[in-house]
């Protein structure tokens, strides 16, 4: 199974874990990452993740999240058709 984890998901373990919902989401995310490392799931990466992560104000978080790119079996690059399609959804 191929999975795309968005930037919010990668940042979840750095959030305050005192809320049960946050804690459960973190536990689920860590379990998914374990299965990615074991090869059970395939990680899909994208140029958007690179961009969003580059804007993270916390250097150590940026570094840790960026390390996950090496586990990606697919890296989605910006392509004219994809960017044009995204722009079409954004038109007012």
Describe this protein with a few key phrases.
single chain; 92 residues; alpha/beta; 3 strands; globular
In words, what does this structure look like?
This protein has 92 residues and is of the alpha/beta class. The chain has one domain (2-90). The chain contains five helices and three strands, in the order E-H-H-E-H-H-E-H. It has helices spanning 7-11, 20-38, 47-54, 59-66, 80-90, and strands at residues 2-4, 42-46, 72-76. The protein has a three-stranded parallel beta sheet with strand order 1-2-3. It is globular, with a radius of gyration of 15 Å. 5% of the residues are buried.
Topology (SSEs and partners):
Elements: E1 2-4, H1 7-11, H2 20-38, E2 42-46, H3 47-54, H4 59-66, E3 72-76, H5 80-90
Parallel strand pairs: 1-2, 2-3
Quick overview of this protein structure:
The protein has 92 residues and is of the alpha/beta class.
Strand order of the largest sheet: 1-2-3
Computed structural class: alpha/beta
Number of helices: 5
Q: List the uncertain runs.
A: none
Count of discrete structural domains: 1
The description of the largest β-sheet is: 3 strands, parallel
Q: What integer value in Å does the Rg equal?
A: 15 Å
Strand fraction band? 5-15%
Give the overall silhouette: globular
Total beta strand runs: 3
Along the chain, the helix and strand elements come as EHHEHHEH
What level of helicity do the residues show? Answer: 55-70%
């Amino acid at each position: 199974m191929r999975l795309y984890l968005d930037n919010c998901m990668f940042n979840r373990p750095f959030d305050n874990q005192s809320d049960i919902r946050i804690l459960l989401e973190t536990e689920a995310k860590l379990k998914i990452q374990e299965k990615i490392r074991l090869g059970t799931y395939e990680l899909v990466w994208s140029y958007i993740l690179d961009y969003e992560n580059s804007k993270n104000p916390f250097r150590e978080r940026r570094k840790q999240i960026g390390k996950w790119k090496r586990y990606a079996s697919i890296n989605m690059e910006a392509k004219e058709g994809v960017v044009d399609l995204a722009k079409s959804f954004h038109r007012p």
